[in-house]
Fold GLPGLI family protein.
Amino acid sequence: MKHKLIILSFCFLLNVSSLFAQNVRFATDGVIEFEKSSNMFAIMKRQMEKSSSGFMQQAYEAYKRNQSQFKVLKSTLAFSKDKTLYTPIADENNSRNYFFSDPSTGQSNTIYTDLASGLFTTQKVVYEETFLVKDTTRKINWKITSELRTIAGYECRRANAVILDSIYVVAFYTDKIPVSGGPESFTGLPGMILGVALPHENITWFAKTVTDKPVTPNELKVPTKGKPVNNKTLRETINSALKDWGDYAQSALKAFLL
């Protein structure tokens, strides 16, 4: 009798586990809303320390008195199977008087990524000019860790990497969305990236909501506007334009190449 009860209990547990497994939904189509947060006090202080100009100190102090510490911008990532479209949302506070401007704190990219072919198309605004960049997706050497974090209701695992030779990246991805995409140009993990932090740049992207729904082709349109270039040509063009900008040139270049 005791053995029968053990067998029945085991079968019951198997059935319950199977029922839960059947109810787990792996989203392959949907829209994610992201928030990009830039710590303006830290970014301005870093720029001020590189400058010998007293004006930067005055601008920094004035900014701290009159503006909020964090600049928050919104964006969406539509995804369907192996395609994604990252789209910035216009800044509601664009009319505010930001007398300090750094390209790393803005949103200049609309990015269509074909994960199956490993190709992307980016409509990129660089100051007054718009480029249409077509190239292969960035190969990121991710190191996956055991650290877990919940983002927008999804359990995510942490991964670390270095891009553009010196930018340290922390990302959090979920395998419950089996699409190897993410915000901006961050891809290449075994699931959707819902959080990215650039600790030394004082910038983060985190998903606020994930809507599991069918995505139409109209929501995944490839950008078409801009001067056609590839990554190499874009880098050369920006380098040439910023050649007389001193130390600021390298930080601006990295911001535009993210």
